[in-house]
Structures are given as C-alpha cells and as structure tokens.
Amino acid sequence: MRAAQLAIMLAAGVLAAVVGPASPADAKEVLEDEPHRVLEVPTPRFSWSVPDRYQLGWRAWSERRGRYRRAYVRPRRWTLDVDACRSSGGGNRITGYELRVKGVGFDFRTGSRGTSCRRRFSDLPRIGGYDVRLVVQTTAGPSHPLIQRISLRDWLVVSLGDSMASGEGVPDTPGLYTPPFTLTDTVATLARLFRGNVRMHQVRRVDWQDRRCHRSARAGHAQAALALERRDPHSSVTFVSLACSGATIAHLIDKEYAGIQPPPGDEKLQPQLEALRTLVGAGGGSRRRRVDALLLSIGVNDLGFSDIVKGCAMNWNGAHGTGDPDCVYDAGVTKKLAVGGTLEDSYAKFATALRDSLDVADVYLTDYPGAPFGQHRGGCGLLAIPGFGIGPREAEAMATVGLQLYWAVGRAAAAQGWNWVPGMTDAFAGRDYCAPKPLLVRLESSLLRQGTIHGAVHPTRAGQLKLGDLLARSIVFRPDLPHWRAKLVVEQVFVDPAFKDTTRLRKPQPTDPTGQPVLPPPPSDKYAFDFALRTIPNWPAGARLRFTTPKATKGQWIAVPPELGTFELDVYDPPRPPRYPTSVNFLAYGPSGTVGADHTFGQGFGVGCHKLVHPTGWTIRYRIELTPVDGTPGRPPIVPPGEIVPPCRQELAP
C-alpha cells in the first residue's frame, strides 16, 4: 500500500511539473464550479443608549422649598443601557450574553452575564468614554468578542427669565374658574380685574409645576429641552428651569422676588443666577458643572409691558382720550429702548454677572411677539370695551415698540456674544390676540382656565411650541458636529474673446472685502482666478484657492481640476449667530474684477449649479452639494422654487 501511495504521489508531482501551477483564473473557476458550504459563526451586535433625564427634573423641584435637589444636577452615578438582541447565534441557539464595560482614561470596570439580551448598568461614575465588550454564548461555543468605544453625554440646559420662559398662560393642567359676576363688557368689570380686586371661584384647581412662578412643562423653553432629549439616544438632557413670570433683569442678577403668585408668608426666591450657582457649584474645576445651553427670555418686564396693556385698555392716566397712543409711551419706554439706554445697560450688567460666576458654553436669547394686537387690529372682548379698550392706533404704537424691542434684544446678543434667536414676531404674524386662530391667550381664557389675569397676551400652547421649535433648531451642543457639510466645486472658467486685461494697471495691489491682499498676480501670459469661500457670520474665516489658465484659452470653457477648485465647510440651520456659520459666501477674483454670491439657509445653502458673470467678460461655473452629518439634528433646507438652477451642464460651450 505504501508503494502504491508513493507511486500516485510521484505521478501527481510529474503531472504538476508538466502542466505547471494553476493560474488564479483557473483556481477561481474551480472554486466557482464546486459548491461549498460557508460556515456560519456567532455574531455579536449591540446598540446602546442612555435613559432620559428630562422628566426627572420636574420631580427634582421642591415647590415648598423653592429649589432643586442638587443630586439631580450633579449625580454621583450615570446609567448605560445596552441592547444585544440583534446578535446572531450562527445557526446555533444563543444561551447567554457576557457584557463588560471599562472606563477610558480612568479606572472603572463592571460586567454582567445572563440570558437577557438587554442590560442596564447604573453605576458608571462619570459621563465620558467607555469601552463596551460583548461575547455571545451559544450551544456551539462563544463568539469572538465585539468591542466598541462609546461616549456618554449629558447636556445641562437651563432656562432663566420671565413669563415667556416660565410658560405663563399655558398651565400643565388648566383649571376651571368662574367669576363672581357676569363677564359683560363694562368698565367696572375691567377695572376690578386689573386692580386685582376680583377673586375667581374655583371649580377645578389649575396645576403648575410651580405655582408661585407659573412655571409649566408646556413652556417653549421646556419643549426645546424635551426635543433635544429625544434627538439623540446617546445623550440625555438635564433640564433646570428657574424662570419666573413677572421677573425683570434685576431679579436674575441680585434682587429677590416673591413671584407672580406668592404663597403665604414673606419668604422670597433667590435671584435666578444665585440659585443656579448653588446648583452647579461654586469655584472652578470639577467642583463646578458647566451649563451647556442657557435659554434666556428677559427684558419685556423692564419696559412695564403689562402696565402698558392695562393703561391703554383703561386710559387710567386721564390725560389722553380714547385710542391715544401716548399710553404706550408715557412710562418712558422709548428712552429705555434707545441705543445706550437703560435696557441695554441692564443686559450688560447681567452678562457681567453671568461671566463672573458661571461656566456657560452658550447663551440663547429669544425675542418676543412684537405686534401682540397686530399692526392696526386692536383689542377684542374685554379689551375692546366701547370708549375704552385698545384701539388701532394703540395697537400700531405697541407694534412700533415691539420692533424697537426686537432690535434692542438683537443688539444685546451681539454685544455680549450670545446667540440671538429671533422669529417670534414672524411666527405670530396674522395670528395676534384677536385673530380667528390666535397664538396669544385672551383675557377671558386666562380668567376661566387659570383664575387670574396673568396669562393674558402670552403665547398659547401652540405659540409656545413655536418658540420651542425655534430654540431646538438653534441649539448646537457641539460645534464640531454641524447639521450639514457643504462642498463647493468650481467646475469651469471662461474668458470672452473681447476681454482686455487691466489688472496690471491696478495699484496698489487689490484686496478682498476683508482687506486682505489678493494672491500675487500670475505671469503675464496667464489669467488668474482666485477663489475664496467664507462662512457668514464668521467673516473672514474661510479658504482660498488659485487657478491659472493661459491667455491662449480665450473664448473657450476651461475645466478646473477638482483639486484646484473644491472647498468643504460646515453650515448650520439658522438662527446661529454669532458663533456658527449659517450661509456660504463664494467670491471669485478674476482678471479686472470680482464677483460673488451668498447662499443662505432659505436658498438651500445654494445646492445645485450656478454661473457668475463679470461685466468685463469672464464667467465662473460652480456647483454646491450638501450632505447631512450623521448623528446630528437638522431638516433638509427649504429650497424655494426658482432659487436653485438645474443640474450642471457637462458641455464646454459658452
């Protein structure tokens, strides 16, 4: 037998020597011709998330003590949920899961074994990086280990300010109240209401998260925090609201406040900044927690807006006739709103107090519905009593003041480096106090649903949702994770045959709009095109590239190599000033001049193809592509019809 086997082996060796080794193609054909079975192996898979913390915030608030539990804001332990249910046993039955969690950069280890494919680890000592290791046990043995590095994040979102921030007018559970008189259009009824001489009969009590401040989970600030919580399963939101209806800027800085509906006794609330400092910790380093987003609505009570509404409805001062708009200006509101006025000074004092005592990543300052009674509409119901009420001229004056307040808030945001979140006036346009579907609570509704007049002329639930949407789209926790990444590609350039180059006659050397010199001119036998891409409002940040072409190419379209004409940058949904770019600004510096275009959110950031033509006779074609960044929020930009040109043409004809 051994001799026979040896003979076979020798014969095979001779055959191989004669035929030669099989080529890769031959080997491939053999493998394809021979059916074979692929061995399946156990495959571990898992997803992970962190539990929501938003709802815990409302339970962490003590209405009786007027403060939060510090453990909510600065917990000693964090929680991780791991779901391995999508793992495969490779054709075998899964008998168990082994999970291990290890800290990255610090000493921490924990683990768990069992038959459940879902595990919760509640003893993680900090937020940050962890390595998660999963092994799947099967009847055929264990799988290879899957190790994934994850990063736990929790964002501290804080709401400070007045009734817009607290949710005045939209209680968590509306009550039911009846007046001790008939709500008829009488001056006496209105006067009693405004002077606080009416006690409504309670049928069903109104419910607030905090009665003293009329603080509600339906507030726009709270809704924004909830949206941020739901946006990303890999992060949670710790939401703290210290906003209080009726608060002024002084109540944020250093003035105690009893609240809009004080409880019995004379104990007052701490100034909002002081209460926040107590929560996050004083000093620096690990003893103090950073505020990732501070949502701020403040300023309108410094103008005495509620007194303006009452005064115009009643004409209490007696100096003006019905409908006289001076009731809007009598309290000196114009002086307060002027550039360098008292309101601007108050914002500056708050900014100083904030910087001196807290670590805040970003402040988001919102505006107010600027025309509560429309441009000329006026009041209705109890606010339209014949001979009194709020008339068209008073409504117009309030709209004028609202516009002045809009710009005052914007100036404050720019001066202090805050993010300005405008849009409330536009959102409420056509849906003012007396519109068929108003976004502002009417006086009668405030009386019947919460038992006081305080909710009147405040956003309804739908109005607060609009505010929450504006904020949620504005907040960026990590500037390194934009909503969108834009790529601009300069494709072609063209110089008209009749073009005459006059760049050599320009002295001194030309500069771009930022004052920076244009790149040095090319040799005289070439044309130069300097392309600059910038992001607004981060002017002049950006990048610059140069493309040169021989003068002999006049009258021809010349293709620009991609490496010489391609830019990439990050953009965000608006509003995002002052820190985050919200539009794309493209400039082309060619022979004898400059052309450019600014592509905004409303234009879809310029997605599509464009052609810039300079009057002297040269043209640039370029395109913009936009892709969403994985793991970040955002919706596709709105592209109005006609704003984006058709797809780029490939031919090189003029």
Structure notes:
The chain is an alpha+beta fold and 654 residues long. It folds into four domains: 2-33, no CATH class; 47-144, Sandwich (Immunoglobulin-like), CATH 2.60.40; 156-474, Rossmann fold (3-Layer(aba) Sandwich); 484-628, Immunoglobulin-like (Sandwich). The protein is 26% helix and 25% strand. It contains 18 helices and 25 strands. Strands 5, 6, 8, 9, 10, 13, 14, 15 and 16 form a nine-stranded mixed β-sheet that branches. Strands 17, 20, 21, 24 and 25 form a five-stranded antiparallel β-sheet that branches. It has a four-stranded antiparallel β-sheet with strand order 19-18-22-23, with no helix packed on it. Helix 7 packs across helix 17 (461-474) and helix 13 packs parallel to helix 14 (392-416). The longest helix is centred in the middle third of the chain and has 25 residues, at 392-416.
CA-based gyration radius: 34 Å
Low-confidence stretches: 4-31, 537-541, 638-646
CATH superfamily of the largest domain: SGNH hydrolase
Count every beta strand, where a strand is a DSSP E run of 2 or more residues: 25
Shape: flat
- Average per-residue pLDDT, rounded, comes to 83
Structural class: alpha+beta
Q: What is the CATH class of the largest domain?
A: Alpha Beta
Summarize the amount of helix as a percent range.
25-40%
Largest sheet, strands/sense/barrel: 9 strands, mixed
Assembly state of the chains shown: single chain
First and last CA, distance: 85 Å
* Domain module count: 4
CATH topology assignment of the largest domain? Rossmann fold
What's the CATH architecture name of the largest domain? Answer: 3-Layer(aba) Sandwich
Portion in beta strands: 25-35%
Number of helices: 18
